[in-house]
């Protein structure tokens, strides 16, 4: 079972806070109540909630101002829940970094539907971000960690598993120099039979596969006396 999403309810009215809390608990969330802005900011510092429900009228601060402060510290989705229904508040609230707005009285089932919609959206963004990171494009080349493929001018180029790992390692840390022994450790592991010539051989093979002119490499460069680095063209 996946981890329950933590929902921070910032609300000073006990009745409302408790009703929301009970309802969220039934719907498999982990609700936490903060009755003041100070308490909410402390909670935010110590833990990172997945979602925030924010009342605009709190005893110790203005909800809009609190929303702005939360946004400075966190990207968490914020839904403003308030008795004030004017459009000014609505605009203000969203302008200060809130993601959604509901006015009291409100429907608990709609609240849960909106929380779920925001969490799904966050999940999707996170997945896209992760996916993006696993595909690195440089000039006419594309390396895909998930599929273990390397393309040059959209043509897939066959690489052995170790060739791929070495190339991905270098590309991932572009412009950083690695010694042969560092590369050996990183790709073949510490217990590899430590022959640094292995690296020389693999670097030569990679150059033959990815460079326009392997004897005068542009991407996989030798740093004399140190090792190798992958250089990006726009560096
Ligand atoms: Ca209130």
Give the names of the bound compounds. calcium ion
| Percentage of β-strand residues | 15-25%
Helix fraction, binned, reads 40-55%
The major beta sheet can be summarized as:
5 strands, parallel
Uncertain regions: pLDDT < 50 for 5+ in a row?
none
Distance between the termini: 45 Å
**Outline, from the CA principal axes?**
elongated
The secondary structure category is alpha/beta
Radius of gyration: 26 Å
The beta-strand count equals 11
SSE order: EHEHEHEHEHEEEEHHHEE
- What is the typical, i.e. mean, pLDDT? 88
Q: In what order do the strands lie side by side in the largest sheet?
A: 2-1-3-4-5
**Number of helices, where a helix is a run of at least 4 consecutive DSSP H or I residues:** 8
């Amino acid at each position: 079972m996946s981890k329950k999403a933590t929902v921070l309810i910032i609300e000073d009215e006990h009745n409302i806070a408790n009703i929301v809390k009970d309802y969220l608990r039934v719907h498999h969330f982990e609700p936490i109540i903060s009755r003041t802005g100070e308490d909410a900011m402390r909670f935010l510092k110590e833990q990172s909630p997945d979602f925030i429900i924010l009342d605009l009228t709190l005893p110790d601060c203005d909800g809009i101002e609190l929303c702005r402060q939360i946004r400075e510290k966190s990207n968490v989705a914020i839904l403003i829940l308030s008795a004030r229904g004017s459009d000014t508040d609505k605009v203000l609230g969203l302008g200060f970094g809130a993601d959604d707005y509901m006015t009291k009285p409100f429907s608990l089932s709609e609240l849960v539907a909106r929380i779920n919609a925001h969490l799904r959206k966050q999940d999707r963004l996170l997945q896209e971000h992760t996916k993006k990171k696993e595909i690195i494009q440089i000039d006419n080349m594309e390396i895909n960690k998930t599929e273990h493929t390397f393309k040059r001018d959209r043509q897939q180029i066959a690489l052995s598993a170790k060739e791929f790992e070495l190339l991905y390692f270098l590309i991932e840390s572009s412009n950083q120099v690695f010694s042969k022994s560092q590369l050996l450790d990183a790709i073949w592991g510490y217990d590899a039979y430590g022959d640094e010539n292995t690296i020389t051989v693999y670097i030569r093979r990679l150059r033959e596969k990815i460079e326009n002119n392997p004897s005068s490499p542009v991407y996989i460069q030798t740093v004399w006396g140190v090792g190798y680095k992958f250089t990006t063209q726009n560096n």
